[in-house]
Amino acid sequence: MKASEHWRLTGLVAVYLALAVMYSAVVPLFESPDEVWHYEYIRWLAAGKGLAAPEDVGVAPWAQEGSQPPLYYLLGAAITAFIPAENADAVIRYNVHTSVGNAEAFGNKNFMLHGRADAWPWQGVALAAHLTRLFSVLLGAVTVALTYRIARLVLPGWVAAATLAAALVAFSPQFLFISASTNNDNLVTMLATVTLYLCIRLLTGETPPTWRAWVVVGGVVGLAALSKISGLLLLAPAALTVAAVARRTRSWRMFGQAALLTGGAALVAAGWWYLRNWLLFGDPLLLSVMFAGVPPQATPASATELLALAPGIWRSTWAVFGWFNVLAAPWVYSFYTALTALAVAGWGVGWISRRLSAGVHWTSLALLTSWLGVVVIAVVRWAQISYAQGRLLFPALAALTTLMAGGLVLLAPMRWRHRLVWGLTLLLAVIAAVTPFVWILPAYPSPPVVDAAAISGAPLARFDAGPVLLGAALSPTEVRAGDSIDVTLYWRTTQEMWVDYSVFVHAVDSDGIVQAQHDSHPGAGAYPTRAWRSGEIIEDRHRLTVPAGAPAPATLRIVAGLYDAATGARLASDQGEAVALGEVLVLADADALPGATRVNFDDKLALVGFKLDRRTLQPGDTLQVTLWWEGLAPMAQDYVVFVHLLLPPDAVWAQHDGMPQAGAARTSTWRVGQRVEDMHRLTLPPEAPAGMYRIEVGVYDKDTLARLPVNFSDQGVVLAQVKVE
Q1: Which range is least confidently modeled, 63-77, 203-217, 438-452?
Q2: Alpha-carbon distance 433 to 427, whole Å?
Q3: How many alpha carbons fall within 13 Å on the CB side of residue 534?
Q4: 631 with 605: CB under 8 angstroms?
Q5: What's the CA gap between 19 and 577, in Å, rounded?
Q6: Pairing of strands 461-462, 467-475
Q7: 449-587 with 599-724: one CATH topology?
Q8: Nearest to residue 237, comparing CAs of 111, 386, 395?
Q9: Using a CB cutoff of 8 Å and minimum separation of 24, what contacts does 344-351 make?
Q10: Which pLDDT band, with edges at 50, 70 and 90, does 713 fall under?
Q11: What residues have CB less than 8 Å from 59, skipping those under 6 apart?
């Protein structure tokens, strides 16, 4: 490598390290997917409890992560074993109201509750977790450096492409976010990149095909398989490399020797773990243990559902944070999509103009492309049975960014290439640098502390454990179905608390039915009561959304209180358990259908409205539910509508299944845009217990009984609640 290239790569890695260390320091602890459970397995091993055993499943604190190959966790345990972990209970506190996977939710983006125990200066568990984050950062640095080397070997005629490929990795906000967290994806990504680099050196002739070279390739593949089961996929590029080198040397003997050495080294490195799993669990991959922690989807995702999931997977390849619930600005995703589209166009232009022959090592390019294809297929397959995220593509990140960089460089005029690459590199670095402060940290705000002079009047309530509700504000006080009500509470405590109490805010109608509610730790989850300081006044915001089926016109009473989520026990106050805050008027919309909504059933039909003839019932009563449907596409099938009356969690106490209008308006006869009124009657049995029941509606095929997906995900929709007395 020339001196200029050496300094260029050193600079890229140095800037990556600075950014990644910043991410690791400022992103709240355990606020990346599964990080807390990755760390819990490290802590488990550091405490000398050994690899996961059958008796640990379902009771150990590492959830599904104990099913993972152990190399990353063993290394993490070695790094942190000297740090005492007595403060684990103070640091590892789960937010029971978290909004995992829901970027539109109001607050509660934090999966964990944070406080003084995980704040700077770090001690105990917080220090150990940050050390494992720094270990991950170093693994990412190796990935960045080897991406540059891979691009130089695959695209030897285009130095600029190597710079851009490394920059696309180093300054990817998602790569930085994951690299700055405790996660075994970092080790398998690094080892996958090492494997590709070693294979490409063999393909280009940079490394002679000696027995040592094949043992090293196999050993690295084995280590990858000992880091994550997706590392087993690296047997594919290793096998392709063996075949390609044997073909080039025209030696079947070499093919046999190389295959034996590579496979044998991989088996020695990782085979023991898979054999252990088979002997202990009867499952070499431990998928049964993983699915015990995170159950798979009940039915494999259909092609339509996979297409609906694809944008989310693509976005999370570049910039989705938190627990899949913190997004960047839309233009960021458009930017990366545009870069990818331009790269594809660049390869097309290069092919048409015949500018490729001098600048590409085709066998290596084929290896990268095939590896990217293998990983994409594996992620699609995983998405069918579980929950896929873009980080699962990271073992092929070097391949993806090398292909992107090559296409973008091909698209640029020769004299502008270096300027374009450095300009784009600078832009990528700026986006990466501002991301934590513009998009990530604002998702975890501390609530404002208010001056006591701003709160006038007598307190609304004094609670037994010390909190005082000083006041409340409602806005607006007149709404329509579908609107939101912002509720601001002002709290003060007279003493420190040792329980993380939850706040409930309910909108209750005249029948005593809760039409809307918001449960949260104070500060939208960011300021739990154990962190409160005596005497300070906290502004605590909540948002209620009036459901489409709310009765109108009607008056909703807004009440609030505190409870212990661990026991469900409400905290008493001098005003009772639910403190009255005020009233909000729900206005009727004369032009809208009753219960106006829009629920898409597989792009075939939509539920656009509903009406209940009553909201309070006695056992033995009949509830009349009227539905309004709209045809979205011509349908050959005659679908059946079901309406269930459910007592949580899932007990069906009354139901009615039937074609619309008792078969008089079969779905196969509907026109696109046609609206159909459909009535169903549900009779409660005399022995039905009292409680709050949910009304669930869905549609299914009368021949296969398969339900139509709702909005490409669920298979039914809960419309409203009714009260059985």
Answers
A1: 438-452
A2: 10
A3: 7
A4: yes
A5: 48
A6: antiparallel
A7: yes
A8: 395
A9: 344/407, 345/407, 345/411, 346/406, 346/407, 346/408, 346/409, 346/410, 346/411, 347/403, 347/406, 347/407, 347/410, 349/410, 349/411, 350/407, 350/410
A10: low
A11: none
Q: What is the mean pLDDT of residues 158-176?
A: 96
Would you give the DSSP letter of residue 710? B
State the Cα angle at 336 between 111 and 164, rounded to 5°. Answer: 110
Asked if residue 471 lies in contact with residue 454, where contact means CB atoms within 8 angstroms, the answer is no
What are the backbone angles phi and psi of residue 169, rounded to the nearest 5°? -80, -55
Pairing of strands 579-587, 478-480: parallel
pTM: 0.89
How far CA 680 is from CA of 101, 478, 548, 644, 665, in Å, comes to 34, 32, 19, 10, 14
Contact 347, 410 (CB under 8 A): yes
State the CB neighbour count (10 A cutoff) for residue 287: 17
Q: Side-chain half-sphere of 246: how many Cα atoms within 13 Å? A: 16
The CA-atom distances, in angstroms, between 91 and each of 39, 88, 119 are 12, 5, 9
Fold annotation for 449-587: Immunoglobulin-like (2.60.40)
DSSP E strands in 463-587: the ranges are 467-475, 478-480, 484-493, 502-508, 514-520, 537-545, 554-563, 579-587
- 653 with 685: CB under 8 angstroms? yes
The answer to whether 658 touches 568, Cβ cutoff 8 Å, is no
Cβ neighbourhood burial of 337 (10 Å; 0-12, 13-18, 19+): middle
Beta bridge partners, 700, equal 640, 707
Nearby residues of 662 by Cβ (< 8 Å), 6 or more positions away? none
Q: Are residues 266 and 222 in contact, defined by beta-carbon separation less than 8 angstroms?
A: yes
Least confident among 111-115, 452-456, 525-529, 638-642? 452-456
Give, for 720, the enclosing helix (H) or strand (E).
strand 717-724
Contact residues for 249 (Cβ-Cβ < 8 A; gap 6+): 209
Q: What ranges do the domains of the chain cover?
A: 3-440, 449-587, 599-724
Peptide bond into 436 cis (omega under 30): no
Query: For residue 364, what are its two tokens?
Result: 């290596």
Task: Determine what percent of the chain is predicted with pLDDT higher than 90.
Answer: 76
Burial environment of residue 391 by CB neighbours within 10 A (0 to 12, 13 to 18, 19 or more): buried
In whole numbers, what is the pLDDT of the chain averaged over residues?
A: 93
Instruction: Name the more confident of 630 and 250.
Output: 630
HEC string of 398-459? Answer: HHHHHHHHHHHHHHCCHHHHHHHHHHHHHHHHHHHHHHHHHHHHHHCCCCCEECHHHCCCCC
User: In terms of C-beta density within 10 A (0-12 exposed, 13-18 middle, 19 or more buried), how is residue 634 classed?
Assistant: exposed
Angle CA 233–237–238, to nearest 5: 95
Q: 482 is written with which tokens?
A: 């579908």
Please check whether residue 605 is in contact with residue 617, taking contact to mean a CB–CB distance below 8 angstroms.
no
**DSSP alpha helices (H): ranges in 327-385?**
330-353, 362-385
Query: Do residues 118 and 530 make contact, with C-beta atoms less than 8 angstroms apart?
Result: no
When pLDDT is cut at 50, 70 and 90, the band that residue 291 belongs to is confident
Is 162:155 a contact under the CB 8 Å cutoff? Answer: yes
Number of H helices, E strands in the chain: 17, 21
Distance of CA 462 to the CA centre of its chain: 39
Question: And the tokens for 326?
Answer: 């913190």
CA 398, CA 546: separation in Å to the nearest integer? 47
**Mean pLDDT computed over 197-226:** 97
* Token pair for 369: 């492309």
3-state secondary structure at position 583: strand
A 10 A CB-CB count for 415 gives 7
Domain spanning 599-724: which CATH class is it, in words?
mainly beta
- By DSSP bridging, strand 622-631 and strand 675-683 are antiparallel
